[in-house]
Amino acid sequence: RATQYTCMLLSYLIEHKADKEKLAMKLKQLESSMSSGRKMFRLGNMVHALVAARRTTQLPDVVPRFCLTASNLTRALYFVCDAVLWLKSVGLQPDVDKPKWRNWATKCYYFSLLMNLARDWYEISWRLEQAVQEEKTKEKSFWDKHNQDLNCVKCDGLHGFLLLLFQILKRHPPLLLDLVKNLCDLSGPLDTLGIYKTNPGVIGFCGILSSLVGILTLASPHLKLKQ
């Protein structure tokens, strides 16, 4: 995935240079090959998404339970559409309406990301509320080293809110990484659906950043946001 988006970004950066046309074409071909290969590797992910959806229905908190279950179910539908597109690309189902299935796949992926972001915002709001309550109930003469930064923050106005948000994300790296990954992944479907048009350079950069976050959470599981 990181290789695919790197090729997208590099081809966008050099495609208008006269002496780099052949290299840009090779990068685009490599990007296409990586995309097709990823579709093949994802053929079994629908089962994984359904198992994850079943697991998230057991969560005790209603908001994460709804958001994550809806995200996993729509992600499973995305993988179904993705598999159909792969069958089209390898010639096993030549009659498949590619634009229609691609549109369905993008919408499912987009909704799944929105549900993930809703869950992230719920986690942030919960921690913000805790921090505000802590600020209101603590004694004015009390200074704890762990909470010193929060004690300096006044929660009145946008500036105070942003400072408090910064402190919350700083103290919860898994939440920050999950938020960054979901926001980066959003650039692709926003462009494809015409909601917010960008360019392959932006999508490629966001894809690389999202992939690096994914690699980091695989290498260090404690940085992955727990369900």
From TrEMBL:
<dbReference type="GO" id="GO:0016559">
    <property type="term" value="P:peroxisome fission"/>
</dbReference>
<dbReference type="InterPro" id="IPR008733">
    <property type="entry name" value="PEX11"/>
</dbReference>
<keyword id="KW-0576">Peroxisome</keyword>
<keyword id="KW-1133">Transmembrane helix</keyword>
<keyword id="KW-0812">Transmembrane</keyword>
<feature type="transmembrane region" description="Helical">
    <location>
        <begin position="201"/>
        <end position="219"/>
    </location>
</feature>
<keyword id="KW-0472">Membrane</keyword>
<keyword id="KW-0962">Peroxisome biogenesis</keyword>
<dbReference type="Pfam" id="PF05648">
    <property type="entry name" value="PEX11"/>
</dbReference>
<protein>
    <submittedName>
        <fullName>Peroxisomal membrane protein 11A</fullName>
    </submittedName>
</protein>
<dbReference type="GO" id="GO:0005778">
    <property type="term" value="C:peroxisomal membrane"/>
</dbReference>
